[in-house]
């Protein structure tokens, strides 16, 4: 077979080229959704944060007393404004479910949350929950840079889990009502008629 414009020989497609292209396209779309999600998360603090519009969830693997702190941290990373934030997107449930999976370290995670709170009390003279949204953002950045390698790793993992929980498949506990996908314009065909 010859390309009509260039008159160069064109390779006949192999039987699996279509499947390979489909898989490569999916991988690209997943990476793009993750990148767009990270960009959205990084850009959103400049908008006016309004706080979550939903009640805090019940948890299975975290201590219920830790939920307000975790929700505040997640909502600092991805705050709600005209669009849903981390709490409204179900990120707290996503993180709780993830910690319950094999290999999840809920006690280490709880210790890190306590350390963040204690660091805020010592350095900010208030607990994280008592800080305004702009001060929470600054405190989280300062904690990551001044709190040592464990603090930096913890904040990094919180950002990763928040973004993942906001944009992952809803079957993992986050991305409530596919709202995270709607934020980035990602549409997925519904596999069943009951799918919204």
Principal-axes shape call: elongated
Mean pLDDT: 79
Helix content: 40-55%
Give the number of helices: 7
The biggest beta sheet reads: none
User: Cα-atom Rg, whole angstroms?
Assistant: 21 Å
Summary?
The protein has 196 residues and is mainly α.
Give a written overview of the molecule:
The chain is 54% helix and 0% strand. By secondary structure, the protein is mostly helical. The protein has one domain (17-184). Helix 1 (17-43) packs across helix 6, helix 3 packs across helix 6 (149-167) and helix 5 packs across helix 6 (149-167). It is elongated. Residues 15-24 and 43-50 have low confidence and may be disordered.
List the helices and strands and how they pair.
Layout: H1 17-43, H2 67-77, H3 91-100, H4 106-124, H5 133-146, H6 149-167, H7 179-184
Helix pairs in contact: 1-6, 3-6, 5-6
Structural descriptors:
mainly alpha; 7 helices
């Amino acid at each position: 077979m010859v390309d009509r414009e260039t008159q160069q020989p064109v390779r006949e497609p192999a039987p699996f080229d279509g499947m390979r292209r489909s898989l490569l396209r999916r991988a690209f779309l997943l990476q793009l959704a993750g990148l767009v999600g990270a960009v959205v998360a990084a850009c959103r603090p400049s908008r006016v944060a309004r706080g979550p519009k939903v009640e805090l969830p019940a948890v299975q693997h975290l201590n219920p007393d830790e939920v307000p702190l975790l929700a505040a941290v997640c909502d600092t990373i991805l705050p709600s404004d005209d669009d849903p934030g981390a709490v409204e997107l179900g990120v707290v449930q996503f993180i709780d479910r993830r910690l319950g999976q094999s290999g999840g370290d809920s006690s280490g995670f709880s210790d890190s949350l306590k350390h963040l709170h204690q660091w805020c009390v010592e350095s900010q003279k208030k607990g994280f929950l008592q800080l305004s949204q702009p001060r929470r953002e600054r405190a989280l950045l300062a904690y990551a840079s001044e709190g040592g390698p464990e603090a930096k790793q913890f904040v990094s993992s919180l950002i990763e889990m928040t973004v993942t929980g906001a944009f992952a498949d809803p079957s993992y506990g986050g991305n409530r009502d596919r709202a995270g996908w709607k934020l980035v314009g990602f549409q997925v065909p519904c596999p069943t008629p009951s799918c919204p």
